[in-house]
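Let us work through a complete example step by step.
Step 1: write down the sequence.
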Amino acid sequence: MSSADHNYQDWQCDRVFGQDQIKPGERRTLLVLIITAITMVVEVTAGIWFGSMALLADGLHMGSHAVAMGVSVFAYMYARRFAGDYRFSFGTGKVNSLAAFASAVLLGAFALIMAVESLVRFITPVSIDFNKALVVAVLGLAVNGASVLLLGHGHGDHEHHHKHDHNLRAAYLHVLADALTSVFAIIALLAGKFLSAVWMDPFMGLVGAVLVTRWAISLLWESSQVLLDKQLPEHQLTELRTALETRGKDRISDLHLWRIGPGIHAAEFVVVSNDPKSPEEYRQRIPSEMAIVHASIEVNSEDR
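Step 2: predict the structure and record it as tokens.
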């Protein structure tokens, strides 16, 4: 290969942007999927074997969230597998947000089912075997509580990774919804058993449905902003503009800054200057902490 070919390759854009690396939340999401799937099989088998509808219903409910976990795990693997595929203009980072959007839709469907079932039980109450139902609820809380801890992995880690990793946030919200459902179920069952407040069961179901709906809407909004290439917040645009205009002779006439994956950004900007420099010099002014992995730069002279 000639030196000219080598120089040409040096100027080619890297499309991987680190998306070929295993993300911090991938292994934990896979582990939670395995735990959820095992619990589902145990509960469904026990429900069929012992004729317990409560166990069978909870097992099938676990199954719906196992599907959501499967979507998250598949998204992580797909993003890594095709990270260098030239067909993805800015890499596969947005697969993360696409999977989160799909999971948010599933989360919303789960909330709707909870609400409908709760309303039906308000109208036509059913008899509840409180002791068996409490065992199921406690088992579900133990499994989902452990899953929440695995995906949260401490407050600092949760804040850092969940902020950008919508796929991890989606998995986290699914197990959190499960844990919340179990907590509300235990409260309602205890109230029904000891206070004869049977109405608490459907009431707690409605409360849980409202909270889960809010989470689903929040996740839909956050992930859709990435999928639609929404500009990053104004303070980040100002930070980049200030860094690029440091010499006083340069002005940014057009600026676009958006997220292309978990914690990584792309930028396009036009510089107008009475003393223009090379695009590479302007590239060097970009603050590294802004995590801009791809920048398209146009430089124009004011004297043109």
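Step 3: interpret the result. Strands lie at 250-261, 264-273, 292-301.
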